[in-house]
Amino acid sequence: MGFVSRTAFEKMYYFLWFIFAGFLCTGCGSRQEPLRNKQAKTIETIADLGALPLYVTDPKDNPSTPEKVHLGRLLFFDPVLSGNKDVSCATCHQPEFNYAEFLETSIGVNGVGNGSKRRFVEPNDIPFVKRNSQSILNTAFNGIKNDEIYDPEKAPMFWDVRAKSLEMQALEPIKTLEEMRGNTYHQDKILDEVIARIRKIPVYKTLFTKAFPNESEPLSQVNLSRAIAAYERTLIAPNTRFDQYMRGDSNALSSSEKDGLNAFLTTGCVKCHSGPMFSDYKLHVLGVPDTGNRKESDSGADQHYAFRTPSLRNLRFTSPYMHSGKFTTLDQVLMFYEDVAGGKLLNPKVKAQQIDTLATDMDVNFKDISRIVEFLNTLNDDAFDKTIPATVPSGLPVGGL
Protein backbone atom coordinates (compact mmCIF):
# COMPACT_ATOMS: atom_id res chain seq x y z
CA MET A 1 0.00 0.00 0.00
CA GLY A 2 1.38 3.38 -0.97
CA PHE A 3 2.09 5.98 1.68
CA VAL A 4 0.60 9.48 1.49
CA SER A 5 2.47 12.16 3.41
CA ARG A 6 0.66 14.30 6.06
CA THR A 7 1.25 17.43 3.99
CA ALA A 8 -0.15 15.85 0.84
CA PHE A 9 -3.13 14.47 2.78
CA GLU A 10 -3.96 17.86 4.23
CA LYS A 11 -3.79 19.46 0.81
CA MET A 12 -6.14 16.83 -0.61
CA TYR A 13 -8.53 17.24 2.39
CA TYR A 14 -8.80 20.98 2.06
CA PHE A 15 -9.16 20.73 -1.73
CA LEU A 16 -12.10 18.31 -1.45
CA TRP A 17 -13.72 20.36 1.34
CA PHE A 18 -13.43 23.50 -0.75
CA ILE A 19 -15.23 21.79 -3.67
CA PHE A 20 -17.94 20.34 -1.38
CA ALA A 21 -18.51 23.65 0.37
CA GLY A 22 -18.79 25.39 -2.98
CA PHE A 23 -21.39 22.85 -4.05
CA LEU A 24 -23.40 23.51 -0.89
CA CYS A 25 -23.24 27.27 -1.36
CA THR A 26 -24.30 26.95 -4.97
CA GLY A 27 -27.28 24.86 -3.91
CA CYS A 28 -28.22 27.27 -1.16
CA GLY A 29 -27.95 30.20 -3.53
CA SER A 30 -30.36 28.61 -6.00
CA ARG A 31 -32.93 28.04 -3.27
CA GLN A 32 -32.66 31.50 -1.81
CA GLU A 33 -32.92 33.45 -5.05
CA PRO A 34 -36.72 33.17 -5.37
CA LEU A 35 -37.11 34.34 -1.76
CA ARG A 36 -35.31 37.55 -2.57
CA ASN A 37 -37.59 38.20 -5.55
CA LYS A 38 -40.86 37.17 -3.89
CA GLN A 39 -43.08 40.00 -2.67
CA ALA A 40 -44.00 39.62 0.96
CA LYS A 41 -47.76 39.41 1.60
CA THR A 42 -49.01 42.55 3.32
CA ILE A 43 -51.28 41.82 6.26
CA GLU A 44 -53.46 44.70 7.37
CA THR A 45 -53.80 45.43 11.07
CA ILE A 46 -56.52 46.83 13.27
CA ALA A 47 -54.86 50.23 12.79
CA ASP A 48 -56.24 50.14 9.22
CA LEU A 49 -59.76 50.28 10.68
CA GLY A 50 -61.17 52.88 13.05
CA ALA A 51 -64.03 54.11 15.20
CA LEU A 52 -66.52 56.58 13.78
CA PRO A 53 -66.60 60.11 15.18
CA LEU A 54 -69.49 60.74 17.54
CA TYR A 55 -70.42 63.90 15.62
CA VAL A 56 -70.71 64.78 11.94
CA THR A 57 -68.96 67.53 10.03
CA ASP A 58 -71.21 69.94 8.13
CA PRO A 59 -70.22 71.62 4.87
CA LYS A 60 -69.27 75.27 5.29
CA ASP A 61 -72.16 76.39 3.09
CA ASN A 62 -74.75 74.20 4.84
CA PRO A 63 -74.37 74.30 8.62
CA SER A 64 -77.00 72.28 10.39
CA THR A 65 -79.87 73.93 12.27
CA PRO A 66 -82.95 72.41 13.91
CA GLU A 67 -85.10 74.25 11.37
CA LYS A 68 -83.26 72.69 8.41
CA VAL A 69 -83.40 69.21 9.92
CA HIS A 70 -87.14 69.48 10.61
CA LEU A 71 -87.80 70.69 7.07
CA GLY A 72 -85.57 68.00 5.60
CA ARG A 73 -87.36 65.25 7.50
CA LEU A 74 -90.75 66.35 6.14
CA LEU A 75 -89.41 66.56 2.59
CA PHE A 76 -87.80 63.12 2.91
CA PHE A 77 -91.16 61.51 3.69
CA ASP A 78 -93.31 63.64 1.35
CA PRO A 79 -94.39 62.15 -2.03
CA VAL A 80 -94.82 65.68 -3.38
CA LEU A 81 -91.19 65.40 -4.57
CA SER A 82 -92.05 62.67 -7.10
CA GLY A 83 -93.45 63.11 -10.58
CA ASN A 84 -96.67 61.24 -9.89
CA LYS A 85 -96.85 62.17 -6.18
CA ASP A 86 -96.78 58.47 -5.28
CA VAL A 87 -93.25 57.86 -3.99
CA SER A 88 -90.95 59.60 -1.50
CA CYS A 89 -87.29 59.31 -0.56
CA ALA A 90 -88.42 57.09 2.31
CA THR A 91 -90.02 54.58 -0.05
CA CYS A 92 -86.62 53.05 -0.84
CA HIS A 93 -84.93 54.20 2.38
CA GLN A 94 -87.13 52.99 5.23
CA PRO A 95 -86.24 53.47 8.90
CA GLU A 96 -87.11 49.88 9.81
CA PHE A 97 -84.61 48.61 7.23
CA ASN A 98 -81.76 50.89 8.35
CA TYR A 99 -82.91 53.47 5.78
CA ALA A 100 -82.46 50.90 3.00
CA GLU A 101 -85.04 48.44 1.69
CA PHE A 102 -85.58 44.69 1.86
CA LEU A 103 -85.72 44.17 -1.91
CA GLU A 104 -83.14 43.00 -4.45
CA THR A 105 -83.67 46.22 -6.37
CA SER A 106 -86.36 48.74 -5.51
CA ILE A 107 -89.76 49.48 -6.96
CA GLY A 108 -90.02 53.24 -7.13
CA VAL A 109 -92.56 54.97 -9.35
CA ASN A 110 -95.93 53.23 -9.92
CA GLY A 111 -95.53 50.95 -6.95
CA VAL A 112 -97.63 50.22 -3.89
CA GLY A 113 -96.89 48.62 -0.52
CA ASN A 114 -93.79 48.44 1.67
CA GLY A 115 -90.82 46.13 2.02
CA SER A 116 -91.09 42.66 0.52
CA LYS A 117 -94.82 43.26 -0.19
CA ARG A 118 -94.20 46.18 -2.53
CA ARG A 119 -95.35 45.58 -6.11
CA PHE A 120 -96.00 47.48 -9.32
CA VAL A 121 -99.47 48.79 -10.06
CA GLU A 122 -100.84 47.42 -13.33
CA PRO A 123 -100.65 48.46 -16.08
CA ASN A 124 -96.95 49.25 -15.66
CA ASP A 125 -94.26 50.52 -17.99
CA ILE A 126 -91.73 51.54 -15.32
CA PRO A 127 -88.66 49.33 -14.74
CA PHE A 128 -87.24 48.29 -11.39
CA VAL A 129 -84.66 50.67 -9.93
CA LYS A 130 -81.30 49.82 -11.47
CA ARG A 131 -79.38 48.94 -8.29
CA ASN A 132 -79.89 47.82 -4.72
CA SER A 133 -80.94 50.61 -2.37
CA GLN A 134 -77.98 51.57 -0.22
CA SER A 135 -78.56 52.63 3.36
CA ILE A 136 -78.50 56.35 4.07
CA LEU A 137 -77.43 55.65 7.65
CA ASN A 138 -73.91 56.98 8.28
CA THR A 139 -73.56 58.41 4.77
CA ALA A 140 -72.72 61.63 6.60
CA PHE A 141 -69.32 59.95 7.08
CA ASN A 142 -68.79 58.82 3.48
CA GLY A 143 -65.23 59.58 2.45
CA ILE A 144 -63.82 59.63 5.97
CA LYS A 145 -60.35 58.08 6.31
CA ASN A 146 -57.85 57.55 9.08
CA ASP A 147 -55.50 60.45 9.76
CA GLU A 148 -57.03 62.68 7.08
CA ILE A 149 -59.14 65.81 7.29
CA TYR A 150 -62.71 64.91 6.34
CA ASP A 151 -64.38 67.07 3.70
CA PRO A 152 -68.16 66.50 3.49
CA GLU A 153 -68.27 68.40 0.20
CA LYS A 154 -66.28 65.59 -1.45
CA ALA A 155 -68.11 62.63 0.07
CA PRO A 156 -68.57 59.91 -2.61
CA MET A 157 -72.18 58.79 -3.14
CA PHE A 158 -74.00 56.03 -5.04
CA TRP A 159 -72.64 52.70 -6.28
CA ASP A 160 -70.94 54.48 -9.19
CA VAL A 161 -69.67 57.57 -7.26
CA ARG A 162 -71.52 59.86 -9.68
CA ALA A 163 -72.21 62.43 -6.97
CA LYS A 164 -70.06 64.03 -4.29
CA SER A 165 -71.71 65.20 -1.05
CA LEU A 166 -75.15 64.55 0.38
CA GLU A 167 -76.32 67.82 -1.18
CA MET A 168 -75.52 66.58 -4.70
CA GLN A 169 -76.97 63.17 -3.95
CA ALA A 170 -80.30 64.46 -2.64
CA LEU A 171 -81.76 65.60 -5.97
CA GLU A 172 -80.58 62.73 -8.19
CA PRO A 173 -83.39 60.27 -7.31
CA ILE A 174 -85.98 62.97 -8.06
CA LYS A 175 -84.57 63.26 -11.60
CA THR A 176 -84.35 59.49 -12.22
CA LEU A 177 -87.23 57.94 -14.16
CA GLU A 178 -87.70 54.68 -12.23
CA GLU A 179 -86.89 56.11 -8.79
CA MET A 180 -89.10 59.19 -8.35
CA ARG A 181 -89.57 61.10 -11.62
CA GLY A 182 -91.72 58.72 -13.68
CA ASN A 183 -92.46 59.45 -17.33
CA THR A 184 -94.85 62.39 -16.83
CA TYR A 185 -92.06 64.98 -16.70
CA HIS A 186 -88.76 65.30 -18.54
CA GLN A 187 -85.57 65.05 -16.51
CA ASP A 188 -84.80 68.72 -17.17
CA LYS A 189 -88.25 69.86 -15.97
CA ILE A 190 -89.03 67.77 -12.89
CA LEU A 191 -87.18 69.92 -10.34
CA ASP A 192 -88.91 73.07 -11.59
CA GLU A 193 -92.22 71.26 -11.23
CA VAL A 194 -91.43 70.12 -7.69
CA ILE A 195 -90.42 73.62 -6.59
CA ALA A 196 -93.57 75.08 -8.16
CA ARG A 197 -95.69 72.58 -6.19
CA ILE A 198 -93.96 73.34 -2.89
CA ARG A 199 -94.39 77.08 -3.37
CA LYS A 200 -98.14 76.52 -3.43
CA ILE A 201 -98.07 74.92 0.04
CA PRO A 202 -98.12 77.66 2.74
CA VAL A 203 -96.55 75.46 5.42
CA TYR A 204 -93.54 74.74 3.24
CA LYS A 205 -93.10 78.42 2.38
CA THR A 206 -92.96 79.21 6.09
CA LEU A 207 -90.59 76.33 6.88
CA PHE A 208 -88.15 77.27 4.09
CA THR A 209 -88.11 80.87 5.30
CA LYS A 210 -87.31 79.73 8.85
CA ALA A 211 -84.62 77.32 7.66
CA PHE A 212 -82.95 79.83 5.33
CA PRO A 213 -83.76 83.22 6.89
CA ASN A 214 -81.00 85.25 5.25
CA GLU A 215 -81.88 84.52 1.63
CA SER A 216 -84.06 86.58 -0.69
CA GLU A 217 -85.56 83.41 -2.21
CA PRO A 218 -85.31 80.65 0.41
CA LEU A 219 -87.46 78.17 -1.52
CA SER A 220 -85.10 76.95 -4.25
CA GLN A 221 -83.63 73.76 -5.68
CA VAL A 222 -80.35 74.37 -3.86
CA ASN A 223 -82.09 74.77 -0.51
CA LEU A 224 -84.25 71.75 -1.20
CA SER A 225 -81.07 69.69 -1.43
CA ARG A 226 -79.55 71.40 1.61
CA ALA A 227 -82.55 70.68 3.81
CA ILE A 228 -82.67 66.98 2.85
CA ALA A 229 -78.91 66.66 3.35
CA ALA A 230 -79.10 68.34 6.77
CA TYR A 231 -81.70 65.78 7.84
CA GLU A 232 -79.68 62.86 6.45
CA ARG A 233 -76.67 63.99 8.50
CA THR A 234 -78.65 63.26 11.65
CA LEU A 235 -79.02 59.60 10.63
CA ILE A 236 -75.90 58.15 12.21
CA ALA A 237 -75.04 55.10 14.33
CA PRO A 238 -71.48 55.72 15.59
CA ASN A 239 -71.51 53.69 18.79
CA THR A 240 -71.35 50.03 17.81
CA ARG A 241 -69.56 47.56 20.06
CA PHE A 242 -66.66 47.69 17.61
CA ASP A 243 -66.49 51.48 18.02
CA GLN A 244 -66.45 51.02 21.79
CA TYR A 245 -63.65 48.49 21.43
CA MET A 246 -61.62 50.87 19.28
CA ARG A 247 -62.13 53.61 21.85
CA GLY A 248 -60.51 51.47 24.53
CA ASP A 249 -63.13 49.08 25.93
CA SER A 250 -61.35 45.74 25.53
CA ASN A 251 -64.42 43.90 26.86
CA ALA A 252 -66.74 45.26 24.16
CA LEU A 253 -65.93 42.25 21.95
CA SER A 254 -66.00 38.60 22.98
CA SER A 255 -63.03 36.33 22.39
CA SER A 256 -64.77 34.69 19.41
CA GLU A 257 -65.57 38.11 17.94
CA LYS A 258 -61.92 39.06 18.30
CA ASP A 259 -61.03 35.84 16.46
CA GLY A 260 -63.43 36.95 13.73
CA LEU A 261 -61.73 40.35 13.61
CA ASN A 262 -58.37 38.63 13.16
CA ALA A 263 -59.80 36.47 10.36
CA PHE A 264 -61.24 39.60 8.75
CA LEU A 265 -57.74 41.11 8.76
CA THR A 266 -55.76 38.08 7.59
CA THR A 267 -58.08 37.05 4.76
CA GLY A 268 -57.61 40.38 2.98
CA CYS A 269 -61.04 41.94 3.56
CA VAL A 270 -59.45 45.13 4.91
CA LYS A 271 -57.64 45.84 1.65
CA CYS A 272 -60.93 47.36 0.45
CA HIS A 273 -63.07 47.55 3.59
CA SER A 274 -60.85 49.88 5.59
CA GLY A 275 -61.11 52.98 7.77
CA PRO A 276 -63.96 53.96 10.10
CA MET A 277 -66.61 53.29 7.45
CA PHE A 278 -65.04 49.99 6.36
CA SER A 279 -64.72 51.27 2.80
CA ASP A 280 -61.96 52.65 0.61
CA TYR A 281 -64.70 54.32 -1.51
CA LYS A 282 -62.96 53.09 -4.66
CA LEU A 283 -64.37 51.29 -7.70
CA HIS A 284 -63.59 47.57 -7.99
CA VAL A 285 -64.52 44.86 -10.50
CA LEU A 286 -65.70 41.68 -8.75
CA GLY A 287 -68.00 40.03 -11.28
CA VAL A 288 -71.11 40.04 -9.08
CA PRO A 289 -74.11 38.46 -10.87
CA ASP A 290 -76.66 40.86 -12.37
CA THR A 291 -80.11 41.26 -10.90
CA GLY A 292 -82.86 39.42 -12.73
CA ASN A 293 -85.13 42.46 -12.35
CA ARG A 294 -83.63 44.22 -15.36
CA LYS A 295 -83.17 42.94 -18.91
CA GLU A 296 -79.93 44.80 -19.55
CA SER A 297 -76.67 43.98 -17.78
CA ASP A 298 -75.38 46.64 -15.38
CA SER A 299 -71.86 47.52 -16.50
CA GLY A 300 -71.16 49.91 -13.66
CA ALA A 301 -69.51 53.29 -13.39
CA ASP A 302 -67.00 52.96 -16.22
CA GLN A 303 -68.74 50.36 -18.43
CA HIS A 304 -66.26 47.78 -17.10
CA TYR A 305 -68.41 46.47 -14.21
CA ALA A 306 -66.72 48.48 -11.47
CA PHE A 307 -68.71 49.45 -8.37
CA ARG A 308 -67.85 51.33 -5.19
CA THR A 309 -66.90 49.44 -2.05
CA PRO A 310 -69.92 49.62 0.28
CA SER A 311 -69.71 50.20 4.02
CA LEU A 312 -70.04 47.13 6.24
CA ARG A 313 -71.81 48.96 9.04
CA ASN A 314 -75.27 47.85 10.21
CA LEU A 315 -75.40 44.97 7.74
CA ARG A 316 -77.86 43.11 9.93
CA PHE A 317 -80.60 45.45 8.76
CA THR A 318 -79.66 46.01 5.10
CA SER A 319 -79.98 42.63 3.36
CA PRO A 320 -79.84 41.84 0.46
CA TYR A 321 -76.27 42.74 -0.43
CA MET A 322 -74.07 43.93 -3.31
CA HIS A 323 -75.06 46.42 -6.03
CA SER A 324 -77.45 43.91 -7.60
CA GLY A 325 -78.91 42.63 -4.32
CA LYS A 326 -78.15 39.06 -5.38
CA PHE A 327 -76.97 37.77 -2.01
CA THR A 328 -79.43 37.55 0.88
CA THR A 329 -76.99 36.54 3.62
CA LEU A 330 -73.48 37.53 4.68
CA ASP A 331 -72.44 33.89 4.38
CA GLN A 332 -73.34 34.02 0.69
CA VAL A 333 -71.28 37.18 0.24
CA LEU A 334 -68.20 35.59 1.81
CA MET A 335 -68.66 32.37 -0.19
CA PHE A 336 -68.77 34.56 -3.30
CA TYR A 337 -65.35 35.97 -2.39
CA GLU A 338 -64.10 32.44 -1.82
CA ASP A 339 -65.29 31.55 -5.33
CA VAL A 340 -63.64 34.65 -6.84
CA ALA A 341 -60.33 33.82 -5.18
CA GLY A 342 -60.69 30.29 -6.53
CA GLY A 343 -61.05 31.55 -10.10
CA LYS A 344 -64.81 31.15 -10.54
CA LEU A 345 -66.67 33.72 -12.65
CA LEU A 346 -70.29 34.30 -11.65
CA ASN A 347 -71.09 37.05 -14.15
CA PRO A 348 -70.67 35.84 -17.75
CA LYS A 349 -70.23 39.45 -18.91
CA VAL A 350 -67.05 39.86 -16.85
CA LYS A 351 -63.76 38.31 -17.97
CA ALA A 352 -61.15 36.85 -15.66
CA GLN A 353 -58.58 39.53 -16.45
CA GLN A 354 -61.06 42.23 -15.38
CA ILE A 355 -61.42 40.95 -11.81
CA ASP A 356 -59.62 43.11 -9.28
CA THR A 357 -56.49 41.37 -7.98
CA LEU A 358 -57.37 42.51 -4.46
CA ALA A 359 -60.28 40.07 -4.69
CA THR A 360 -58.48 37.21 -6.45
CA ASP A 361 -55.66 37.38 -3.88
CA MET A 362 -58.01 37.03 -0.91
CA ASP A 363 -57.72 33.97 1.30
CA VAL A 364 -61.30 33.35 2.44
CA ASN A 365 -61.91 29.76 3.53
CA PHE A 366 -65.15 28.15 4.57
CA LYS A 367 -63.82 27.71 8.11
CA ASP A 368 -63.39 31.51 8.42
CA ILE A 369 -66.85 32.53 7.25
CA SER A 370 -68.82 32.05 10.48
CA ARG A 371 -66.11 33.81 12.51
CA ILE A 372 -66.04 36.80 10.14
CA VAL A 373 -69.84 37.07 10.17
CA GLU A 374 -69.75 37.03 13.97
CA PHE A 375 -67.32 39.95 13.90
CA LEU A 376 -69.37 41.87 11.33
CA ASN A 377 -72.32 41.72 13.71
CA THR A 378 -70.33 43.90 16.14
CA LEU A 379 -70.72 46.71 13.56
CA ASN A 380 -74.46 46.96 14.21
CA ASP A 381 -75.96 49.84 16.17
CA ASP A 382 -79.73 50.02 16.41
CA ALA A 383 -79.76 53.31 18.33
CA PHE A 384 -80.47 55.64 15.42
CA ASP A 385 -83.35 58.01 14.74
CA LYS A 386 -86.33 56.18 13.25
CA THR A 387 -88.85 58.99 13.70
CA ILE A 388 -91.53 59.15 11.00
CA PRO A 389 -93.66 62.31 10.82
CA ALA A 390 -97.37 61.79 11.45
CA THR A 391 -98.26 64.00 8.48
CA VAL A 392 -96.48 65.94 5.73
CA PRO A 393 -97.41 69.47 4.53
CA SER A 394 -98.65 68.28 1.12
CA GLY A 395 -101.36 66.19 2.77
CA LEU A 396 -100.25 63.15 0.75
CA PRO A 397 -99.70 59.73 2.37
CA VAL A 398 -96.55 59.84 4.51
CA GLY A 399 -93.78 57.93 2.74
CA GLY A 400 -95.82 57.33 -0.41
CA LEU A 401 -98.33 54.69 -1.45
Q: State the strand order across the main sheet.
A: 1-2
CATH fold node name of the largest domain:
Cytochrome Bc1 Complex, Chain D, domain 2
Q: How many domains?
A: 2
What's the total number of strands?
6
Q: Which CATH architecture of the largest domain is right? A: Orthogonal Bundle
Which labels suit this protein?
401 residues; mainly alpha; Cytochrome Bc1 Complex, Chain D, domain 2; 2 domains; two-stranded antiparallel sheet; 6 strands; 3% strand; globular
Describe this structure in words.
The protein has 13 helices and 6 strands. It is mainly α. A two-stranded antiparallel ribbon has the order 1-2. A two-stranded antiparallel sheet has the order 3-4. A hairpin with a 5-residue loop joins strand 3 (156-157) and strand 4. Helix 4 crosses helix 8 and helix 11 crosses helix 13. The longest helix is centred in the first third of the chain and has 32 residues, at 6-37. The protein is globular, with a radius of gyration of 28 Å. The protein starts with 5 loop residues before the first helix and ends in a 25-residue tail after the last helix.
